[in-house]
Write a structure and sequence with these properties.
It is a single-pass membrane protein. With 332 residues, the chain is mainly alpha-helical. The protein is 66% helix and 5% strand. Strand 3 and strand 4 form a beta hairpin.
């Protein structure tokens, strides 16, 4: 099996042929840019650019520095199957270059989930979902589409993918993982048809393009890029200020202005936790390296000393986190 990436069958060639300079998502499906003016009936826009009226019902979000994706639980503590979960699974699958790598990748994912102290049933559900997603990725790579890059040909490719997702993943997971991208798919086809309609004047084309966004592009499809873009810009500004000698108070003020005080508090706390973790990890690695380089100890004595050091400096959840990171490094 080739490296687990769907770009091999619906990638840059399709994007160039059909969508020009539009961005391409991680399956190679072309994604057009949103209008600079968002429709006014999509709900209240928060400080970070998200639409509050369309916020999914989540009561807990679990994330970890250095690992893409998050785990969202609803108000009853049940797993929310969404794009965030797909990103998490995809982060670990990106380590696999062949089917032989999958057991190690799966172990790394399991170690990561166990380090988060999730309920056993939630871990089991995520692992089962990951297995289905692997099956889908493998099946998608086997699809053959030929060289038809017409609108009808692209429509057939997209329809085939949409059907495969529901066949392998089931309706619930397929919708949770791909609803936003499939909304883009439908919008993109209509947008392309609009661009090829030579009977329209430039003004008519602009008006109809805005109407397509209004009626075919859900707010949920716009929300992630708004949120990510707002945070990215803010973090770039914060980094520039830090390089100029800005204080923590200056950084907090910037974030609060751009993203709101609650987001600023969360980012400040995350900065502090990341720094503390990196400091602890650095000290641990220095002490571990000193032990491993001690020629006065036997190999077994060194291993025992490292184990004692690890147990002394880290709690059990933290040790599981260390093992997850080690598994990731080994599978890279």
């Amino acid at each position: 099996m080739k490296k687990l990436s769907l770009a091999v069958f619906c990638g840059g060639v399709v994007a160039a042929a059909l969508f020009g300079a539009f961005r391409v998502n991680n399956e190679g499906t072309p994604v057009p840019p949103a209008s600079a003016e968002a429709p006014t009936d999509r709900g209240t826009t928060a400080a970070d650019g998200t639409d509050r009226a369309f916020e999914p019902p989540k009561s807990r979000t679990i994330t970890q520095h250095g690992i893409d994706g998050t785990i969202n639980l609803d108000h009853d503590g049940r797993l929310v199957v969404d794009h965030d979960l797909r990103d998490l699974i995809g982060f670990f699958l990106s380590r696999a270059n062949s089917e032989q790598d999958l057991p190690a990748v799966r172990t790394a994912l399991l170690n990561h989930l166990e380090s988060l102290d999730l309920p056993a049933e939630t871990i089991a559900e995520i692992m089962a979902t990951a297995d289905l997603y692997i099956d889908y990725r493998v099946a998608a790579e086997q699809l053959q589409f030929g060289e038809d890059f017409s609108i009808d040909g692209i429509a057939n490719r997209i329809e085939t993918l949409h059907h495969l997702r529901r066949e392998v993943l089931g309706q619930h997971i397929a919708e949770g993982f791909f609803a936003e991208e499939e909304a883009y798919d439908r919008f993109s086809l209509e947008f392309r048809r609009l661009m090829q309609d030579t009977s329209l004047t430039p003004e008519q084309r602009r008006q109809q393009s805005a109407a397509l966004e209004e009626h075919m592009l859900p707010a949920a499809a716009l929300k992630p890029q708004r949120r990510v873009e707002a945070i990215r810009k803010t973090q770039e500004e914060a980094q520039a200020l830090l390089e100029q000698g800005a204080s923590d108070a200056d950084i907090y003020q910037l974030r609060a202005q751009r993203l709101g005080p609650e987001a600023a508090e969360r980012l400040t706390k995350l900065d502090r936790e990341r720094l503390e973790w990196q400091q602890r990890l650095g000290e641990y690695h220095r002490e571990r390296d000193a032990i491993m380089s001690n020629e006065g100890l036997s190999e077994q004595d060194r291993q025992d000393a490292v184990e004692r050091l690890t147990n002394e400096q880290f709690s059990e959840p933290e040790r599981r986190r260390l093992r997850a990171l080690a598994s990731l490094n080994e599978s890279s």
